[in-house]
Design a protein that fits this description.
Chain lengths: ~160, ~425
Amino acid sequence: MKKIYCDIKKCLGCGSCEIACAVEHSRSKALYMAIKEDKLPIKRRKAQFINKSVAISTGCHHCEDAPCVAACMSAAMYKDKKTGQTMHDVDKCVGCWMCVMSCPFGALTRERQEKVIVKCDLCPDRDMPACVEACHTGALFFGVLKEFKENSCDTR
Amino acid sequence: MRYAIIGSSAAGISAVEAIRSKDKKSDITVISDEKKPLYSRCLISYLLAGTIDKDKIWIRPDDFFKKNKAEAILGVRAEKIDLKNREVYLKNKEKVKFNKLLIATGSSPKIDDVPGNDKKGVFPLRTLAHAVQIQAALDKVKSVAVLGGGLIGLRAAYALRSRGKDVSIFVRSPQILSQIIDEESAGIMQRHIEKKGIKIFTGRYAREIKGKLSVEGLALDNGSDVDCQLVVVGKGVSPNIEIAKEAGLETNWGIVVDSSLRAGSKDVFAAGDVVEGHDIALEENTINAIWPVACEQGRIAGLNMSGEDQVYDGTLAMNSIEFFGLSVISIGITKPKKAIYKEIVKKDLSNNKYKKIVLRDDVIVGAIFVNAIENIGVIGALIKNKVNVKDIKDIALENYFDYGRIIKIIKDSKDGFREKEFRETILTL
Ligand SMILES: Cc1cc2nc3c(=O)[nH]c(=O)nc-3n(C[C@H](O)[C@H](O)[C@H](O)COP(=O)(O)OP(=O)(O)OC[C@H]3O[C@@H](n4cnc5c(N)ncnc54)[C@H](O)[C@@H]3O)c2cc1C
């Protein structure tokens, strides 16, 4: 399936992906308006540091055997049979945080007021996820694994 | 090929889906003594609390069995398994033939032997029916006593408090949630819950439930009496092993399984609360009666029934609980008793924050996070994969600790982190 991959060699940890993600998931979808919305939009992507100078941008990896799906007690988290994406039905979410407990990537974020989870949805309204488009260094890649490998990995 | 599955909750449902993902044709028969089993057991306290309404409790649509071309025998108990003739005998005298059988009978509330537990107004909380019965009994109730301070006791207390009842919890142990978290984190939770108007009495238990036909109160161990019109008993669960035991399968506390989830026979599997199996952190056999384990075991048992060869690595205790906005998550061993275990703790009690990891030879075997639960899943991955964390243990409880900080460990690990999603993140490192 098409997913978002990060080339650690290129990631600066600048956080552009985080901002683009939050804005895309805001009501207005525009930065200067988004920061004034009553509910600050929440990012689903995280720029994380491996050490002082090496970084990675992570989010939901849409795991094949997703532990969050097995853990979800309300069937809010599920696999889309066609696309293989890990989807989240916010109406079913009860905010039990079982998915937070079971995600090895720490990819799920709590919306504490509404008591629901927010997660990467691969930007259904766009061809290219907002974080990938916003990445200045080309570290983020949207596509299938094979392409990512050809693009980014040493083929020594 | 004929598959039979006894039990149609987390484990049974997951198994049906797993079998059907591989085998589109063969017959599947599901037997459940619950008439409408496709609900989430974990949500019944949410229903009782009024946090969700009834249509949210269903985790699969009504046509689930039809869509999966499974025959469902509902509201009927399986009474006996005949391993020789490969038949399940039902209470209604019918028989179900099988080539492969899954026992996913779950567990039942432990009966508290307190005198008076047969009075009207005493309930366990295990099934949707229980939640509905409690709800129906609430009208004339002012005060509720909850016996037991475990997850289900507390959830019941929270639900009934949300319904405006006067709620007291009696906990025999010196702390609440004693099977799940340590004393200090339990103290944080207890004080928080008490502030919201639920009374908690630790080190106290009911000697008797009093009343004529209906509950009128409790007589406590210290000689005092308490008024209440409803009692919820939450004293833990015991696995429903009887039919497996009678069939001659190996049982101890639960049904004993191997890493393929077979119960000592090539064609008989078990999954969920009823299973006793290897615990990754404890490194011994135990029962972890939790939803994620039931779903995962159901899936893997289903796949193996359909001819796959999947290995189940073992279970890990884990729980996530939130009351009145304060959340706690625990994984693995949280109350180590032996000196070989070391603990690292970081706390900020004025903000109700508490984090602890438990280590054995620089391998994390357990964790508790209170009110700062983000990234505990990353710790969970370290526990599952049993890697040496010497290099990161000192930062593991910092707020900035996240997946990025364990990438080097993943890269260096030879046999852990087998899932391809981990491998994909280190391709360019
Ligand atoms: C109020 C409550 C809250 C909970 N909260 C959490 C939580 O937050 N997190 C968590 O991880 N877990 C929680 N749990 C535990 C979780 O619900 C169980 O671990 C899970 O349901 C186990 O699934 P299972 O399929 O193994 O068994 P069960 O859910 O017990 O289902 C077994 C089914 O088989 C049926 N059955 C049994 N014997 C027979 C027979 N002989 N013939 C026919 N049918 C039979 C039973 O009636 C039942 O329908 C909670 C449980 C309760 C009651």
